[in-house]
Amino acid sequence: MLVLDIAFAGSFTTSTEYTPATGERGLLVRITGLEAIHPCRGLLLADPAHGVRLPVVPEERGVAVRAVFLPEAGTAEGELLLVREHGGEAAAEGIAVDGAEIVISGLRGTLRRVTVTAFDGPYRPEPNAPGRTGHSDGHSGGNALTDGDPASPWASAAGGVTFPGEFVVDYGNARQIATVTLHTAWAKGQGITDVSLETWDGSAWVPQVAHHLIDWRESSAKVETSTVTLPKPVTTQKLRLTVHKANLQWGNLALYEIATTAP
Ligand SMILES: [Ca+2]
């Protein structure tokens, strides 16, 4: 059961009562009020006293807190994870349980996303839909392709990109797909511009859309989207994007999110 999911970067999406524009309402409270929210970056924690409090520890259940965090001196995001099974102790860097609150503090850097999950029994991370790619990883690993956050990027290495390349997403079980939307920022410099889509029928890849061409408009942090519409909705567990071409202004291509919709 997902209790809370806040992405501070990008569009500040949240499934809680938290109102990021005003900061101090809802389930999440900034500890000092001095923490800065920077669009497309996250919540800047410039002092160890900065942080957030989340008054959402469920009683009688286990709780897992995941925080995606970019250290002040670092170049790669990491994940901080605190798991407290029912009645157990928990400890994690930067995350503590204080009474009925979760406290994230003592860090310097940028907090990009926090999710809180309540569970019964032993902790089992929710299955996600890892994306994998034939392009070499330059940033974030494949999970950024399908982490639900349009602002968290996957990017290839800056150089040596060859075509065709591919992205494969395995959802773990079948789902209905009517459209596939690609999200990318700085897309005029690093967006995919020619892509084909296939779905998996259990034994083979089935062509759906060939050479979907994308004319990206933005050379900015704004996340743009391009939607590939299937000829008709398909029930499938996996999809494959074959990349024929991409903008390579900086030597890399990037894809921030692969999202699907059901009919
Ligand atoms: Ca993402």
UniProtKB/TrEMBL annotation:
**Signal peptide coordinates:** none
User: Gene3D superfamilies, per this entry?
Assistant: Galactose-binding domain-like
Domain of life (superkingdom): Bacteria
What region holds the F5/8 type C domain? Answer: 137-250
Record-linked SUPFAM superfamilies? Galactose-binding domain-like
Query: Region Disordered: what ranges?
Result: 119-153
Pfam families hit by this protein: F5_F8_type_C
Name the UniProt record assigns to this protein: F5/8 type C domain-containing protein
Could you tell me which species this protein originates from? Nonomuraea africana
